[in-house]
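hey m, so remember when u said the tokens were messed up on ur end? i reran from scratch. heres the input so u can diff it against urs
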Amino acid sequence: MKRLENRLNVTDDEARVLALLAAVVMLGMVVFSFALGETEPWQESRWVFCDGTLRVRSAPGGEVAGYVFLGDEVTVDRLKGDWAHLTGLSIEAGEGWVAVRYLADSKATILPEQTVGTIQATGRVAVRQGMEGKRLFWVHPGDTVEVLAVTDDWVLIEGGMIRRSYVEIEGEAE
């Protein structure tokens, strides 16, 4: 406190009050930034893009409240970190949270069973858990994969997702 007193030319009591006031202001800024950053509004349609069913949760990481399915169109009204809040669902609660990495911004096209894709790349390609999710395993140039569905940017295979630019789908017009 002596350094603060000397620099600001204030008494010991005034220095304590200033320090306490600074601490309160900093705490308020932290609390306010968390309150503002907790959710961000976002009113758009998205399409479920996952292998099978996607669990809808009561809160981010919370209890399972229901399910949505590959190709379902959903409405996202806000984001919280890596979670999207969905509204208008046909589950009992009518709303819930899902991981953002399983929501595509373009309509998913579900392909017929046994549609094959060939990996077209100069090196190995990551198969990911959801769009932009963690890497699960690698595929290599020339490998074939069974393609379940596609969006403008992603290919869904059993076990994960690959960027569409790396997969040539059998019978697809170029």
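this time it looks ok to me. DSSP finds two helices and 14 strands in the chain. if urs says something different then somethings off w ur setup not the seq
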